[in-house]
Design a protein that fits this description.
single chain, about 325 residues, Rossmann fold, 4-stranded parallel sheet, globular, binds adenosine monophosphate, binds magnesium ion
Length: about 325
Amino acid sequence: MAEIGQDIAKAKAFLEKGELVGIPTETVYGLGGNALNPDAVAKIFATKNRPEFDPLIIHTSSIERVLEFAVEIPEVLRLLGEKFWPGPLTLLLPKKNILPDLVTSGLDTVAVRIPGHALSRELLSGLDFPLAAPSANPFGYISPTKASHVNDQLGDKIPYILDGGTCEVGLESTIVGVERDKVVVYRLGGLDVKEIEDVVGDVRVMTHSSSNPKSPGMLKNHYAPTKPFVLGNLKTLIKEYQLKGVTFAVLSFRDVFKTVPIGQQIQLSPSANLNEAAKNLFAAMRALDTMDVSVILSELLPEQGLGRAVNDRLRRASAN
Ligand code: AMP
Ligand code: MG
């Protein structure tokens, strides 16, 4: 198992040697490695079992430093960066050749973020290279929102996890780029699209996958627990599965179901708060996945605010 602690100097020393470190951010935990070191980058793909067509997000500590590895920041995207960084926003920018091709899966754009978590900010400010850091989970599985989640799944493959507590936002970053002067959202995430529109006007949301998606990692069946995950009207589903005699657990937005044992149901937010639901989502999915049942039953949240991004993850989880 990995060592878990809050020693930034130790994390830095591992990263400088080309090793990988689990790092906390406000979205989810990342699997960080030196983005300029092709061996470290290759190790990230191998450790996650991530296909090489799925490019990594590069993390740094300031807008000025973004230009170490991006050619420029188009004006509309700079507005967004200035407003929401540090925060759960990733921008797609033209890449410089200093980045190994593997980082961007051969694309000529690079995904960039300045994360908001105090520990990772301090770490990034003290490094003289940016970090490539995809979510610290095996490819296709649920993203980690606590240090122990990282340790459970990747602990035998990395030396150190920087423990920053539970991730405040709990969903991956919102990915934004620009195409022919139009701002495009490629992945719904921890920054509400509405907030982006308040700054730059209407945006296009293009988060669907195909065999050749523009945002390549957006496969339909992502973020998936290992158990079948069924979405629908919970009252109806519960009756149906009780009749069928199939064991199940329930993931609801706020409702408690009297006919289901308390230990087999989780409410994402008893007060029906969408941000709280987002923060709890991935830990809840993990907990449900370890329960002694055959199926997970769940429902969509209101399609507003972070509810849109949560619903995106729920739909992907149910697409297997
Ligand atoms: P994560 O596992 O959260 O780090 O996800 C990274 C995701 O960012 C990838 O799966 C892609 O969908 C997206 N991404 C990264 N780099 C690019 C890029 N250059 N162009 C488009 N999408 C990108
Ligand atoms: Mg991921």
